[in-house]
Amino acid sequence: MTPLALGDWTAHTVDAGFLWLDGGSMFGSVPKPLWSRTNPADERNRIRLAMRCLLLRGHGRTVLVDDGLGDKFSDKLRDIYRVEPEPSLERSLAALGLEPGDVTDVVLTHLHFDHAGGSTRKTAQGLRPTFPNARWYVQRRNWDNAHAPNPRERASYMPENYDALMEAGVLTLWEGPQRPWPGVETIMVNGHTRGQQLVRVAGGGQAAYFVSDLIPTAAHARIPFVMGYDVAAIETMEEKRALLTRAVAENAWIVLEHDPETALARAAADGDDFTWAERVPAAAGPPAGAPLAGSRPAGEAAAR
Ligand SMILES: [Zn+2]
Question: How far apart are the C-alpha atoms of 68 and 88, rounded to whole Å?
Answer without folding.
Answer: 9
